[in-house]
């Protein structure tokens, strides 16, 4: 169901946020910023009824998460390799 998919995506974002431990220029941890942003996005779409729009939101969210993680891992590997 789309509810299950939404929860799965939210949990994936939550788990991925653990990797972002550094702070921004205001001293806030990126982990917390990512979590707060995800919460706002999910709450904003909470009462969406159109199945097509819900699917689009889920696909877009998953794509952005995958892209962010791929960039993170690439950068991490380049730092490790020196």
UniProtKB/TrEMBL annotation:
- A matching Pfam family: Complex1_LYR
Q: Which GO terms describe its cellular component?
A: mitochondrion
| Superkingdom in the source lineage | Eukaryota
Cross-referenced InterPro entries:
Complex1_LYR_dom, Complex1_LYR_LYRM7
Q: Where is the Complex 1 LYR protein domain?
A: 4-67
What's a GO biological-process term for it? Answer: mitochondrial respiratory chain complex III assembly
Task: Report what the protein is called.
Answer: Complex 1 LYR protein domain-containing protein
The organism is: Micromonas commoda (strain RCC299 / NOUM17 / CCMP2709)
